[in-house]
Design goal:
about 190 residues, 4-stranded antiparallel sheet, mainly beta, globular
Length: about 190
């Protein structure tokens, strides 16, 4: 958009696919688009070849991107039908990606279809799937489902609010979850 006109970027411009499911901006100002045929990185300052495309050969679990999220540390997470990939972004590295890691059901996700991604105030990552929501602390996945109080096992959106509560948009309403305090409350000792 140039202030007075709309413009549309498509496959003809280098976008991986015309069906776009997610958009995020990283710390360097690059835009990332999750499409039905891969992940596209867009350099708004480039004059030519503004798009770089990532697929399974570059670390994605599958071509179809369902969700995107940039965490507090600057890593990009891409949820697909075959897991979630964490891309460690680094300025000056090839196409802005220093490394990547794919997480799947074999790593502890309840399902490899990752529909939504969020981050809690404690830094833990949350992944909404079609079999519940999982919290990942960097080492272990902890899954909560309908039997634990989640409205439904399908989780389509995740939000961390200003009070530290996690909100989950499910196939059966909204669920609000208030994690336990990471540190115990202060104790007053009297003589």
């Amino acid at each position: 958009w140039d202030g007075s006109q709309w413009s549309t970027l498509t496959i003809a411009d280098g976008l991986a696919n015309d069906e776009v499911w997610g958009i995020v901006e990283d710390r360097e100002g690059f835009l990332w688009f999750g499409t039905a045929n891969g992940l596209s990185r867009y350099d708004p300052s480039a004059t030519e070849a503004a798009f770089t495309t990532f697929g399974p050969d570059q670390g994605l679990g599958a071509y179809w991107i369902l969700s995107l999220f940039v965490d507090a540390g600057g890593d990009l997470w891409a949820g697909t039908l075959a897991g979630v990939t964490r891309f460690s972004l680094a300025a000056g590295s090839a196409h802005g990606v220093a490394s990547h890691r794919l997480f799947t059901k074999a790593d502890g996700l309840p399902s490899s279809s990752v529909w939504s991604i969020g981050q809690g105030a404690d830094g833990g990552m949350w992944f909404g799937t079609d079999a519940g929501v999982s919290r990942f602390d960097g080492e272990v996945f902890q899954t909560m489902s309908r039997q634990d109080g989640l409205g439904a096992n399908s989780v389509y959106a995740i939000l961390d609010d200003d009070d530290g509560a996690m909100w989950f948009a499910t196939g059966n309403g909204l669920t609000r979850f208030l994690p336990l305090q990471a540190t115990p409350p202060p104790v007053a000792i009297h003589d």
